[in-house]
User: Fold these one by one.
Assistant:
Number 1:
Amino acid sequence: MVYQSRVVHIGELPLGGSAPIRLQSMTNTNTLDTRATVEQAIRIANAGADMVRITAPGLREAQNLAEIKKELQQRGVFVPLVADIHFNPAAAEIAARLVEKVRINPGNYTDRPVPGKVDYTDSENLFELERIASRLKPLLRICSEYGTAIRIGVNHGSLSQRIVSRYGDTAEGMVQSAMEFTRICHDSGFHNLVLSLKSSNVLVMTQACRLLAQRLADEHLYYPLHLGVTEAGDGEDGRLKSISGIGALLAQGIGDTIRVSLTEAPEAELPVAQALVSRFQRISPDGRAERYIRPDLRIDETAPLNRETIPSGPLGGKNPVAVLLKQGEILLIADETGKTTPLPHRITGADGAIADGEREIILFAGEPDMGQQLPELLKRLEQNPSMPLLAEAGTPALRRVAAALSEKGLKNPLILKSPVKAGTTDELLTEISLNPGNLLIDGAGNGICLEAPDIAPGLQASAGFGLLQATRRRISKTEFIACPSCGRTLFNIQEALKAVKQRTGHLKGLKIGVMGCIVNGPGEMADADYGYVGAGNGKVNLYKGKEPVRKGVPESEAVEALIVLIRENGDWKEAEEPDHKA
């Protein structure tokens, strides 16, 4: 499906429908520090944000939004402001009178967890829904009076006890939570509404948003959707997660505003977001930006595409999903350290000759071979059941050939390649995340092939393995779940993440959360093996799973204490020295 949302307004800014995809970021200053927050908000706006989000964890912060907005306007900056509310509905009611939009979490309005309770009767469920409605309606009345928009933001790690008891900690649970609040708003006549479902797991995030779009369409609601992969981290990893998850949804027309969450300076998020949305917009003849899905990126079907294959050397079968680099007519296969070796296959075109008894052939097919020539291509693969197919095309053609292989029951390994030859690292990260990233999310491919003549092979391999990790197709290193920080963060999370990654980045398969505070941190890193969470000025709490096991550790000692904790639980291993230079 291609989701067509209705238009809502964030102040005077139209959002949804055919309006451009709106970009936003969030300040990480103390909201009570008016000057610092204003300065950062201006930097975010100048970097290209259409909206600026500011945390309002309490009443004082919510009230100070008036001073921040006043100072911004005195300096000629009229960017719409979004108040990010935590725990306290009263803060939302204050902020709704001052800014253009408030973001609430369903957890703000649900009852506190009851220890040990695992079942809710239908009457208990109805009673809590009625309580939620009674708590939410005062905010709806204020927002209606002041023309303020609301974003209902559901996070995977903070679903209510009642929702988890009925639907599990799942994409379905996220959708149900959002739909409950959406129906309350809709039935109350409030329609200036935006929805978001976020997770640090790209697969959960895309699954949840696709499901939500379908449910909204089924009930003819069509509210705009905000997209983001929460706690994505920094650098290459954060970009690969964000672009692959957000891009897979934009390619279906799902998503009207996005935030690329990076554990970096907020303004650093905007160039990444701009590069991403540029693939899904174009300039009309009269100079306006408008929504447009490039034909080579459109996703019309999202059925699972994983299938059993016959191995051919290191490709297919039970071999891990491969990373190949194309250098002219030579294919290299990379290992997880970045070392490359020639692939023992000769490339032949879709109509090239194959000598009798010749082994280790890989069949190369371009976009034309996957159109009218597809029946002949499939016939040739059927005659050579273990011969891998290296398919170079845009998303629709790659999806078409992957589906055809499944329908025919063919077991040839499939290697996915974008037709784009990237010239810079940023271009490489963007292009592979979009294509073949969106196919990897749906299970297609026994490998990916990168072609970037101007980029060092080691950097290409790193990007390839990073994409496979982001899409959960191959785990080759530690996974870091790190928030972008906000006004609640009480230490330098960027430096903390860098220090933790430097010491633990070799622990393959381990998930480590680095979170700025205890407001969202424990929930958003719920599936992490270990957590490093800000607990106050200069203090850190360390987690094993969901349980805090070391509290109030001085920040200067926290990284070493984390390593001790990992050792104590048998998950530590020493880093191996690389035996080559990538």
Note: The chain has three domains: 8-291, 322-470, 479-568.
Number 2:
Amino acid sequence: MLLTALILAQLQAPLAARPDTLHPGHDALHYDITVAVEDTTKHIVGEVQTTWRLTSTAPVVMELDSVFRVVRVAADAKPGDKVGRTLWGRPNGLIVIPHQKQAGDTITTRVRYHGTPRDGLIIRPNAYGDRGFFADNWPDRAHDWFPSQDIPSDKATVEFHVQAPIAYQVIANGTLKQVDTLAYGNVVWDYVLDTPIPVYTMVVGIARMARTPMGKADCAARCVPVAVWTYPQDSAWAVNGPFRRAAAIVDYFGGLIGPFPYPSLTHVESNTIFGGMENATAIFYDEKAYAMRRLDEGTVAHETAHQWFGDAVTEADWHHLWLSEGFATYFSALWLGHADGDSAFRAAMRGGATQIFHSPATERPIIDTAARDLMKLLNTNNYPKGAWTLHELRGLVGDSAFFRGVREYYHTYRDSTALSADFAAIMGRAAGADLGWFFRQALLQPGYPVLDVRARRKGHDLVVTIRQTQKPLYGTYRIPNLQLQAGTERVTADVEGPETTVRVRDAAKDAAVVVDPDGWWLLQSTVSAEK
């Protein structure tokens, strides 16, 4: 029994690989972020108070871009409390804060700083010439504007106090608690989110915005207010176009996966460098997509699905990004199928397959432990191929086991982090089967099967030979229950090696063979008849 367990652990190890070079030093529990901006400069003033649970006696270490001047650092200090001052260092863009506490203790650090951000908080005029300030953190750019432990595996609750000129509206994560007008024409907006989220989704947006409520969603669990914030010039198009069914999308995912994980959801036009960025409760979309009127509902569904997968359940290591992007891509396709019919779902999946077949990323596995450039992980492996991994799994185990397993995965790891091995284990239990082979094949092998299918007539039957002809780099694939259609007859082929032969009995003379007619497998095939 022990030997079997050890062998199983070794086989699963790659699915639990954590190649990220940065790992949590201590456990950040809560960020209290104060930031003040001005209308005529890019200079910001900030103060961040962080509550930590210590895991050792090692110093607390945070990252902050060296462009900022740090004017005060304190540990366990109240505002203005000089007793709480501590010696600290700042090597190579880090803030190192020693302490005298033990593992398991909590400590609160406070960092006051100011300067002009080079990245992370993007300050520039929008497409209409109006000024805007938008955080754009992914993957590790949050520390370019506030001190943090900037890794996905450490989640925390967050509170924002944003001071801005009175002409601006401010959005941030969570619930707006209050807005205070100051004597000199500025306003402080206070937001609180008491659910832990990854640092890369902790954001603020500051601009002249039109705000449109879109109703409440997921009321079977708790009613979630949904809203759209845009530049005033784009408001009518947005609310009547890509966001017209924004609340219905939340309803659908809530019923399919589990209750919406946060108290509200706002869709925000912004200057993000990405088409969409799934910040918890405040999704940012690229303003250029509004100006060109090309933002579509599929993107809205994708970013909304991220609230469950990516935000509530976060990949513990960037190399498992498919747990976020693959899930969002697949559930976006499911929404399109639900809303617009099965043909819309199939079109989305075919479009993803075409991208995979023509992408150089296909030469690498989904879990690519050699990858070090995090931006290059935004590729077809983690998006459409991750989605196809889920689709193949659904076809393999059936709808009941698939969605039961997905719901269990979500409920088990909600507000926490997970690796591919965690998802694989839960899906195996839901299916009541050993799925280790499937996940190793789907996540650790590059490429996809390429099948040379040849049919020859033998009496009243067709003898069909299936040969795997993909690049040797891709390896051999196992394709159980591969469906072959010949006229009105259908047979199942369990493809396990380089060559598999099946017989279609009493096939019509003019019957042509169709491989995988229901579209459950990511593969390419050519079919020919032999005399």
Note: The longest strand covers residues 186-198.
Number 3:
Amino acid sequence: MHLRISTKRIGGNVYNYAQLVESYRRDDGVPGHKVIASLGQLSDREIANLRVALQASRQDTTLVLPGDPSRAEWQARITASLAYLDLAVALETWNRWKLPGLFNRILPQKNEAVAPGDVIAALVLHRCTDPGSKLYAQRWFPRTALPELLGIDPKQFGNTRIHRTLEALDRVGDALQDELVQRYRSKDGLFATLFMDVTDAWFAGRGPDLAQRDRTKEGFSNRHKIGIVLLCNEHGYPLRWRVVPGKRRDQLCMQDMLDQVEDVDWIGDAPLICDRAMGQAKSVARLVDSGLRFLTATTRSEIDSYTDAIPDRLFRELNPVGSEATLQGEMAVAATTAEAAGLQKVDDLLYVCDLGVCERTFSFERPQHQFSGATWDPDTLEGGASFIALARIFADSLRKGEYRNKSELAEKQGMTRARVTQIMNTLKLPTLLQEQILAGDFGYVPERLLRQCAQIDREAEQRALLEANAHVMRPVRAAGKPPRRVGRQTVALRLVAYFNPRMFVEQRGRLRCRRQRIEHYVAELNERLRRSDHIRDPHSIRVEVHNEIARWKLVSAFNVQVSTVKDKDKGKPYRHVRLTLDPDAWARRVRYAGFVLLVGHPELPYNAAEIARLYRQKDTVEKDFQTIKSVVKLRPMFHHTDAKVRAHVSLCMLALLLDRTIERRLRHSKLPHSAAACFEQLRSCRLNLITSDHAIEPTYAATEATQDQLAILQNLRMKGLADPEEIAESIKFRRS
């Protein structure tokens, strides 16, 4: 074996290329040379060293380096230190949910140099591990180990690709949510509980068309904001989410979500927990009409319309202050009073009273329509089929001249003009498709799907959409089952009242403080009026006092009178405000302090204590909102189109899924339970790019993991992420 040097002259430069060559004799006896290895371009010193080494090998002698080998300088350098272990844990969690395969299916790569699913993964990991970074995603990405872990050239992770991917993600939002639900069920089985709530997010600037200027839930005034409706399960995994206009009321947002999920089969018998926003009578009627097993809390002003059996009489004589110094003592008094009133103690802050099943009459939104002899009766049908039948009745009435126009029809039917148009637009479907929907050939067809079909021009596309629906929706209800409720009807409801001593003391204390502030304000106003040189208009004074009382939400509790009084010392008249407390209104205001009346489906299979605990578990969805706001940094938003805002919310929900998965695994360990604390602990373990003058190619080495980091990896069953051999196998060298 010997070293062969090939010399090439290019321009004015001379290049030497080295090859290891072995001599051999061919089959025909002619000597030849076989190239063992091509070593590329070498310096003169490297060529000389190789020749000396080959000579020593042929002579079986040992080479001795001159000088002290321990002092040899190899010039090894760390040329990059990349964020690694926190991202690797998040990426492994992403992979365990099999999300790469999901996005490859619903977002095929086509001619893209980078798979959209990889871009989405990087954006979600950015939300998880470094959401507060002032760097935009495309500037953050090259400073991490994601190019190595995902095999993406950082130059291909640009702003244009990111925005194109966000638009694609918005288009498949519904498919993504359906797929996630199926993954949850395949892993954990049927859902035990569902929680629904609404939050908001505000924008830096005007925001998209959905953004509307209003006060945020955090108290910021005059911000452009959107609403976000979230439905999650008992583990906090997001099942459904929707972006809604900023000024839309919470109960309407949740009713819209109810319209979308009431007929899906994966809810089963899982109770749906909603907060007080769904506690008004109209919203409770909608929950009853959905057929789901629901649980909500009614508003305090509507408690008397359900029951008068809440044992509040003994609490009327208590007048707690609610200060820090008196809080514990007043809570003890309230707890003793609760036991004396017959409430069952569950824990120190929960006393329950089972009020059993009661009856309440509600007005249901859909009016009763008289069957006019048409082929199909809308009141025996359900979903979109009932609206096709109703539209046919409307069209027949207009043809016969029973109504002059749609406006008169809407007025007589107790509907809006837009609602009548929405119903009659279903007649745009071909007659054959209408008959098949009415006959139940496509199973239960929701009204929203029918409206979507009516917007499509081609019958083939309409039929394909309906057939796809038939595979995932339940069949129509069998004959004899009750149709959707109409008009005023009396229904059965399960009632449970619970009492919280701390809430009682704090609510009574706040009301007492508000009353004192109003009285103090009026006293100061009277002093100003007495000293004033001008007599003010009585009407303006009443308006000023009314606005101050309204500020503390006690308008109904006070009567205000403005009179003219003569100053005995100065002999001049001045205005005087007399504030009178209405005792009956004040008693109604403080009556149910500390009490919550829960209203639920009559078939909820729980006792009173379990129902109260179930409702108090609604902080699951509240914690989800807290996570996406404070940890994932949902807001402020910087996008300016509706599609990208919806995609941004989807990224935050996927980041929430990863956070909740990690927290669920760490819940029973002695380690930090929050995903944010876990990522903070892992952040110091980085991936270092090491280069050397003598190395043929650069190498990667991770910072040695600490004991705390190894403990986290062990609990997550991801110890291989810190193993040097596994790191070497998983790393793809950066392309640029």
Note: The chain has 26 helices and 18 strands.
